[in-house]
Amino acid sequence: MKYFHNEIEAKWQQYWAENGTFKASNNSDKPKYYVLDMFPYPSGAGLHVGHPLGYIASDIVARFKRHQGFNVLHPQGYDSFGLPAEQYAIQTGQHPEKTTKENIARYREQLDKIGFSFDWSREVRTSNSDYYKHTQWIFIQLFNSWYNNDTNQAEDIATLIEKFQKEGNANVNAVCDDNIVPFTAEEWNAFSSEQQQKILLQYRLTYLAETEVNWCPALGTVLANDEIVNGVSERGGHPVIRKKMTQWSMRISAYAERLLQGLETIDWSESIKESQRNWIGKSVGASVTFNVMSSEVETPAQIEVFTTRPDTIFGVTFMTLAPEHELVAKITTPEQKEAVEAYVEATAKRSERERMADVKTISGVFTGAYAEHPFTKEPIPVWIGDYVLAGYGTGAVMAVPCGDERDYAFANFFKGTHGMPEIKNIFNQDISEAAYGEKGGFELVDSDFLNGLDYKAGMTKAISALEEIGAGKAKVNYRLRDAVFSRQRYWGEPFPVYYVNGLPQMIEAKHLPIVLPEVEKYLPTEDGQPPLGNATEWAWDTEKNTVVSNDLIDNVKVFPLELNTMPGWAGSSWYWMRYMDASNENEFASAEALKYWENVDLYIGGSEHATGHLLYSRFWNKFLKDKGFAPTEEPFKKLINQGMILGMSAFVYRVTVATIENNDFLKATNIYVSKSIRNKIVHDKSFANNFLIDLAKNSLKDEIDEEKLRKVAGIVFNDLHVKVDFVNLSDELDIRRLKDDNEFGKEFENAIFIGENGEIIVDENGKYIVGREVEKMSKSKYNVVNPDDICNEYGADTLRLYEMFLGPLEQAKPWNTAGITGVYGFLKKLWRLYFDDNGLNITNEEPTADMYKSLHKTIKKVTEDIENFSFNTSVSQFMICVNELSQQKCHHRAILEPLAVLVSPYAPHIAEELWRALGHEGSIATVAFPKFEEKYLVESEKEYPVSFNGKMRFTIKLPLDLTAAQIEEIVMADERTQNQLQGRTPNKVIIVPGKIINLVG
């Protein structure tokens, strides 16, 4: 009876779907286990074999836990809002909802084909209004909350209003905007409603403010820092500039310390934790204010800086402001205005990440203004420089070149120019070659009342003195900035916000969802408004509590709605809680469901989300905990970042001939040389010259004189990707398929291919060998392997086992389809343990000790491997076990029943079929996992090597409980020993029980 994987897998996938085999219960006496994958964005390209890697690992754990008696929640859904669908809509005019649904259908088909044990009854889609109405509700909760530093948690805004009404804001210890104006209770109560709303916006956890943002003109939207790579947008590679815009922001900075401390309580990799620590960037130091000494400023101005080294206050040589700092335009002198404005404009074209990463380039401009030193009263020149960021700290630094490498380089670069004084040295150390940046090993000098002190004592005394004169105070600073929460896009969650006199008002929760309207165009409007500005019905009627026509806006009863939409991370910042109670129409999840599931026990996904999704989701979870909704402080107990499966790309080599003259191209040909020819051209100059002449005279068929040929500098190659589908296991290119493929257009239609023998391939039968390179698997590199093809040819169980077999889960590894046949062969060998040509071949006889030993070695290994997430070594053990059982001619039920359960988490379809063939009803999914029994691995016999004068001649199997004398008696009586001795008596017999037997002499 043969193993027909297609029939078996289709049969059991249908069975699981019809019977709800993997449906989790919110009411169970079993212990819970929640295993979750980072849900996918459903792109039109579908899945390639790299995508399921983490899903297969999580599925193995989910199935294993079910076998162990857990009530397992293993859901799946789609992060279905986002830029790609919208970009496609802009290009084609097709509604992004349509393409998103089509893409989801494709993903679902592929996911089902691989046999995942997802509870599809809990599927979520962030772009469905029944989901995003809860995202809108959470936004309202954030708007109606403030962060109380005294209680160290978020509280209802009503408690803050009560404080204002009773005592004003002087004693309110809140996370809020800078430069809060103090007021009394009497003043608060006398403020108009609009004044009060503006003040409350300075305290709310989500608020409107003019913010420096990353604006991408090509995409028409603001991007988060983690959406920018090397100064351009991650999506599309478009330029990004810095500009000020009124945006919604989330006060994630309120949770900075809790986000730091929480890292100590969760089982995440140290690298991910360190990424978050660095992103949060905690610094302990002081806030110091410097008065501006500029005649250009009409009212007194101050520059506030945060420094971790207040002990170096007497070493301040100059100050540097971020080019975007609000004081720049105010304090710049007329003489410096042109230079400053040009520098500010140039800086706006560089992203913050680019500026932070560029430590080599030194640039800046003197403003012409000076600030007053708080102690010496000396004038300090004020510069601007792009190494200072407006969003970090105060956007200003007090530059102490003697103690900071970047300030030292800046001062030396501009040494001798107007506005750059000599470097002051306040350490009893040499700084002639470099700054002294250590926090120890020095005494302060030329530092007035700090002379003779070290770092700790100097810091304490400096802060005390600053506080005494009102010029500073101790402060803890964080690099983490509030997160911009607005996008100028269409395909995102609408804000539940309308505006009265320009001030935001929340729509009551009972009227949610506010559904995304239809628009004709998905681009921004002609006057630069977001795409929702194209909607004709996008106003809020406060009497009817519904969305109405814009024509009805009277700013009395009908008001304009927010035109921005929420960012991509809105829906993904709480989705794991929705899975707990996905069909609940009234709440994002019931209190009972939240209490039962608590949080995610195992979360698997990519490390690229370390400072984006993983930070935002922890922030929202902590907020919902403060508000009494989330039951735990942290959302994900254990996190594993799966490695990347890399593709083996294929290249053809296009020849381009270059001349010496001006490095111009003499001839860009449509000729492609095979790999060995390319290598010869590169490494053999004589061959290259001959090839070049032949190419010119024969292949190109151009009249090129010898004089011109002598000026040829050489041959340049363009390495062009071709589809790996067109290349066989011997790296030979199918030229006819390449030429006929529509995706490449006419690029290769008239191409000339030169094969391994150096001659033109005329009948497509010659061998053209491609180049190979391991790269990220990507559609653009034509190295994508479709999992559907693997499933069709070899089966989903083969795919699952092979992806685990490739290597440790957390490491990157190259895909090689050639290796998959070995895994497929293993499954067929497993099948033959249960079946022969006549059908089921199972005996109820008692297995041998060796059979039990093979089984229990495997039980022990696989159990440990799954618990340690070492899935690749389990597959190796399965292969060893099946080989051993095959050699032992094992067809014993007592061995093969538990073996089917052991294999089930990895290869569930074949396991189900074997279980049914063994006579069992129902699914194998919840059958108890086999228990390891040590007794089957206890050795009762030992196979001794018997050596004569140190050379092993034969082996003998003996019981382990024999004494040395008993072993010697048996060995000496053995016929093989007598043949070796030929009547001689050995001088010495060395016996170590359980180890060696050696006869000497």
UniProtKB/TrEMBL annotation:
The gene is leuS. It is found in: Cytoplasm. InterPro entries: aa-tRNA-synth_I_CS, aa-tRNA-synth_Ia, Leu-tRNA-ligase, Leu_tRNA-synth_edit, M/V/L/I-tRNA-synth_anticd-bd, Rossmann-like_a/b/a_fold, tRNAsynth_Ia_anticodon-bd, Val/Leu/Ile-tRNA-synth_edit. Its main location: cytoplasm. It comes from the Bacteria. ATP binds at K779. Signal peptide: none annotated. Residues 851-963 form the Methionyl/Valyl/Leucyl/Isoleucyl-tRNA synthetase anticodon-binding domain. One of its GO terms (molecular function) is ligase activity. The keyword Isomerase does not apply. This is Leucine--tRNA ligase. It catalyses: tRNA(Leu) + L-leucine + ATP = L-leucyl-tRNA(Leu) + AMP + diphosphate. CDD domains: Anticodon_Ia_Leu_BEm. Its EC number is 6.1.1.4.
